[in-house]
Amino acid sequence: MNIVETAAGNPAFSTLVAALTAADLATALGGAGPFTVFAPSNDAFAKLPAGTVEELVLPANKDKLTAILKLHVVSGTHKAADFTDKTTDVATLGGEKVTVTGKDGAVHVGAAKVVTADLAASNGVIHVIDTVLMPA
Fold first, then answer.
1. Domain that holds residue 98
2. Can you give the pTM of this predicted structure?
3. Is 135 domain-assigned?
4. CA 28/CA 34 separation, integer angstroms
5. Is 41 helix (H, G, I), strand (E, B) or coil?
6. pLDDT tens, 81-131?
7. In total, how many domains does the chain have?
8. Quick one: which of 133, 126, 135 has its CA closest to 48?
9. CA distance 58 to 52
10. CA dihedral 38, 36, 74, 134 (to 10 degrees)
11. Rounded to 5°, angle at Cα 62 from 60 and 64
């Protein structure tokens, strides 16, 4: 299963899948890749202020939603072990860079912590994060 199919098959990603669909990114992330997705769980989306997700999925906010989601995607397959004991700036599909830090057995992406790493998909890898990343 590709990244989108893997996410769609996991109830913890229902908000992410809905957002990908609203932003018309599901087809792209279902493509050849490879991609590394720092995937916010439903719990991560729930940390946003009340009404934020509902507002973002409105057609009028598609560009903003797309920018947020692209901040969570990196070209190539990057396993958690690739970040062990180092800090790396990686370019996202949105053009911004995020800092990934591996220290003391944990991986952080910006302010988010990877809570489950290395979920394999046919076109890349998913790392579950506990916070939604926001563009600068």
1. 3-129
2. 0.93
3. no
4. 11
5. coil
6. 999 899 999 999 989 999 999 988 899 999 999 999 999 999 999 999 999
7. 1
8. 133
9. 10
10. -10
11. 105
